[in-house]
Amino acid sequence: MRMVVSAKRPSTLSLAFRINDHTLVGRPDAPTQQDIQLSGLGIQPEHAVVEMENNDVYITPLDGARTCVNGSVIHEKRRVRHGDRILWGNNHFFRLNCPRLANSPSSQEPEQKIDYDFAQQELMEKELVNDPIQEAIGAIEKQHEEDKQEALEKQRQMYERQMQMLRNQLMSPGTPSFPLQLFDASKLTPTGSQNSIQKKYQQWAQER
């Protein structure tokens, strides 16, 4: 048997509604009688349609009526599976019970107990993830990380260039040697002094 079972609130009884081939969801005052009649905030007179197609279950929200599956808002026809959590309006949480789909590899049933608190927490987490402010913060953080990585890469490249320049300098030939200049004694002794020494030597030789 295919049905949706309400997620039980504290001190309340669970509600179960059978799913037919074409099941209407809406308020009791809708122009057309609804198979699943709900009331409260966010419930439209004609809220959604639940259909069976080839043993698969599909939900279609009507005229933008708020419908969530596993915490995510849907805006068009969506296939649902055994164990999926469904929200109609602001606070009507249900769990799809379809034993034929229980063994399907695509069925997603959490291991923990499904109750009102779980469904509400799941919805809050999904809304937080999809919050535009959180998305903007995430984009800024991502851009900051990319800029930081780019700056680090530029520093690394500059460091490698400097190290290569240093290696090239160390491996280059030494300072070129200059030609050796021979010692010239005449440049150290003035010409006049040299002649005087020669004269004294000649005079000494004659006296000897």
UniProtKB/TrEMBL annotation:
SMART domains: FHA. Residues 142-169 form a coiled coil. Pfam families: FHA. Residues 188-208 have a biased composition (Polar residues). The keyword Membrane does not apply. The keyword Iron does not apply. Residues 185-208 are annotated as: Disordered. Keywords: ATP-binding, Coiled coil, Motor protein, Nucleotide-binding. This is FHA domain-containing protein. It comes from Biomphalaria glabrata. The lineage of its organism: Eukaryota, Metazoa, Spiralia, Lophotrochozoa, Mollusca.
